[in-house]
């Protein structure tokens, strides 16, 4: 199967660690994205591998029993190790601190520690079956200080390191969840909520399992994802993922349902704000975008965005003494029962000793999602979308996939709406910065220009300029597309750049559509600008009327008087230039030499006489003398005038 078939892949540079066959235990720390490979026997050897080489470390500890949980604090400063149900041991890894162990027992009597979570480099939470205990670690004193605790019966827990929220499963069925949020030494109890369990035939009862729950950040909001398996006796036995949005303040609410359309074993990831659901028995994955609305479904009920596909095949290179350089890599067993999936986007194969990041490949989605409007909505929300969106636009305008004009208009409108929102955010930020910070208001952050912002330059360079040169596309469609893009920009009040108008004019001229060009200019479909007027001037040889159209445009601009004079002089219309400059009241400031040079170049002696006399009269009116000042550099013109008309023809200074 070709690469274009797969829209999910495992990253090229995975974290490699000793596989399960050579170590006793493998642990994963979600906060630091680190894998701990632990080998016991005599002393306990630990190899820690992280996403970056600098986060990798190897060390030995005294063997004090089986390691149940092991994690570094943020920044690898303090190591926490749980070996018993009652206590957690700590080792300083801060430079110049004693590398000695110290221990902390849980405060609640008869409680068993289910696990622990680091919420800061020196703050840790113990989760027990009777509640939670929030501690500050004092590495210099080799002790812990209890900051806060809460008694509550706990079945299991889940931690989201991105938001520092811990979710506790309570009650007999485990479906009442109590979240706690942690920040800078404080612990806040959030609103508890109940997960709606599926109906099962009596007398059976269903308990909520931690295998069916995941916590993740999607579009900047915290969600609890519940993998809901329905009984086979129900009308709709297919599984679904139910999303509960968990705000910092206020109650948690059920917001989205993702229809999986099948049953079996599933695992969840979140990649680029997409919910990825892996199905083990079919060895395929599907993706959901909770911001895409389904027209035929009830509000917030979603179908997969794309058809099910396997993750792109991955090959593991052979290593070790038995490996032969020419030996081909071995295919990795995808969707293996030894895979463990962690949030948001991590897959670990303990048997093969690999930790991967799951990635979404956008190019294959282009041909899998036929609805262009929906495709653009989907792509605009992805990280690395710019070049894929531009390729969709090119594909939409070319070849067999050529879209209808309404589809083209829809795509342009979606792109320009995002562009407009960015421009407005940038303008708001600029105004706020110029006016200075107001009392009590938070410091503004400059808006981030994401890849979804596709401006006129992007469209011109990557799509429209090459599109206008296509031989197999009708010129009517080309012009219609260009005008549609200009309409879309005008609709959201974005100033159209002159190079887009130039593209329209060149296309019209190339196809000899001069009447249409005249109409566009006459009815101001193409906005006036100096660059556009200059382009029209250059087209005079092909389209003679362009000269007058250019002059009319320059006159309308009212700030282009100098350009109009230059144009008229270049056409040897010296008297016309003089009349124009007098009509706008600028004749007292114009350069005499420029006009006299232009008159000389016409070889028309009477024209030169008229222009020379005009400036003599101006000099007399302004300075009381017809003579030219030395700074005007007209000496050669005076000499020429004397040679042709005689010195007596020079205007005499008036006598009082």
TrEMBL record:
InterPro entries: RMC1, RMC1_C, RMC1_N. Residues 26-144 form the Regulator of MON1-CCZ1 complex N-terminal domain. Pfam families: RMC1_C (PF07035), RMC1_N (PF21029). Residues 382-629 form the Mic1 domain. GO terms for biological process: regulation of autophagy. One of its GO terms (cellular component) is lysosomal membrane. This is Regulator of MON1-CCZ1 complex isoform X1. The lineage of its organism: Eukaryota, Metazoa, Chordata, Craniata, Vertebrata. The gene is rmc1.
